[in-house]
Amino acid sequence: MIRATGNSASADAAHPASSAENGFWAQFEYTVAASGGSPAIVFEDRADCSFDELRTRALALAAALRDRGVGSGDRVVVLAANGPWFVELMLAAALAGFVLVPVNIRLTATEIAYIFDNADPKIAFVDRARRQVLSEAGAARVPLFDVASDLETLVRAAPDAGTGAPPLADPDAPFLQLYTSGTTGHPKGAVIAQRSIAAIAEEGAAHLGPVQAGDVMLICLPMFHIAAIDLIAFALVRGATTIVLPEMVPAQVVAAVKQRQVNRTLLVPAVIRMTVEHLEAAEDTLPSLETLIFGASPMPEELIGRARRVMPAADLIHVYGLTETSGMVTRLPPEQIAQGQRLLSCGKALPSGEIAVVDDAGRPLPAGTVGEVVYRGPQTMQGYWRNPEATAEAVRDGWFRTGDAGFLDGEDYLFLSDRIKDMIKSGGENVYPAEVENAILKHPAIADAAVIGLPDERWGEAVSAVVVAAAGHDLALEDLQAFARKELAGFKIPRRLELVDELPRNGAGKIQKHVLRAMFPGQ
Q1: 159 located within any domain
Q2: Is the pLDDT assigned to residue 405 strictly greater than 90?
Q3: Does residue 15 form part of some domain?
Q4: What is the pLDDT of residues 418-469, one digit of tens each?
Q5: Last residue of a domain, which of 373, 408, 443?
């Protein structure tokens, strides 16, 4: 029996008439009843959308898609930059029962083509900037709708759909399908039930703020990421206003926070550093910010100190989570960070879930002993789409094996020490070395290669290629980057190149990446 942190009691629900058991739409309906006239979505120069208006639009969109043959279980792709369409499509999926498949807009045509083939969507919503990529990906067989103009037409085509009690999708049915990078080069579609998003909405809103009506939430993380989806859920179930930015640009983040008096957001440490630098250069501060959640990696103590000076009212909260766990599953409270305690920890399990550290056989390890981090709770994915082998490997006896190595201290705080699967976290993006290695090993000047993450002040970790050059060949970083760009998204391209005579390997012939990381210091 695995000993775990956390407990089985769920967090106090903000809406007792609408718990996570009833699903995400039921939570939203309660918010509409309480805060219907309040602004729900603010985006660029569009008129602010109230919760009442958002409900009407979601009902209309769900009805319009049903009329076009999109049924329960059908996959609907959205490939677009941030915008209110993500929120409307999420709510429509909660109603109509289709499965929303947000796709990373930074992927190459080859990567997108694989996802389209695997997901087999009924339709796709895209923005204009992505149409050319889809053409290159050969996705013309899928009906394409413009995420702005065509979605608006669909909403307006069902003017009577916003009245009456809507039919509700099964809360246990698939709701989202989010693709994670694959260690063999093929991404896997993590299928997440509506009830799981309802669970993080209920618990996260209570323990990561808490979020409440009247709050103003800034979302500048890519909305195809689970972290942004979590923030959307927090706001929708608590009546907070969501300010949506198309991208994470420090100057725009600062301007939005100041203009709209934002008091809650989530940023990755790399973006926090750039935002802090922007504020310091302008001798400016963000006094309205009350909660700053960060994830992907710990923040250095010096950056925490600088952030606290330019965001003087902000409580800093460190979280840890994965796509397969519907996002955030741990929390390091602000008082720990403020006191400089456990700064390398990502905290304790949120109340409804359990965290444990186990050995290769799944046996629990004592405090302080490094092993694999596993999670069990209502946020666990249902499995990988059309990949039962990977599902069986990842979820065993109800526990999701994260692939991350870490340990629990004597008070059940989680510390991550490495990544068993060698995943690199660079600027908030997940990069699997094997995928990059497979691409760069096709270069004629490379005889052998390993890809590792090295500490980087700006990006958290820099994707770094350690290469053995082929006989008679020279190789420069610029040449490697140009070659890799043909197959890999920009955030996966190596930022650093190190040439060696040979790669360290163990007796079984496996590359010893811990040796490589020790050989090359961070920057």
Answers
A1: yes
A2: no
A3: no
A4: 666 677 888 888 887 878 888 898 899 998 899 999 988 888 899 999 999 9
A5: 408
Name every residue whose Cβ is closer than 8 Å to that of residue 508 and which is 6 or more positions away in sequence. Answer: none
Phi, psi angle pair for 264, to nearest 5°: -145, 140
Q: Do residue 138 and residue 186 come from a single domain?
A: yes
> ∠ at Cα 79 (74, 81), nearest 5°?
140
**CB 357, CB 384: distance < 8 Å:** no
Q: Which two tokens stand for residue 220?
A: 């500048």
92 closest CA partner among 53, 124, 62 = 62
Residue 520: burial class (beta carbons within 10 Å; 0-12, 13-18, 19+): middle
What CATH number has the domain bearing residue 482?
A: 3.30.300.30
φ, ψ for residue 146, nearest 5 deg: -65, 130
* Closest to 181 (Cα-Cα) out of 488, 409, 520: 488
Q: What is the pTM of this model?
A: 0.84
Query: Do 114 and 146 lie in a common domain?
Result: yes
**Which residues face 415 on adjacent strands?**
345, 407
**Are 30 and 168 in the same domain?**
yes
Residue 336 lies inside a defined structural domain of this protein: yes
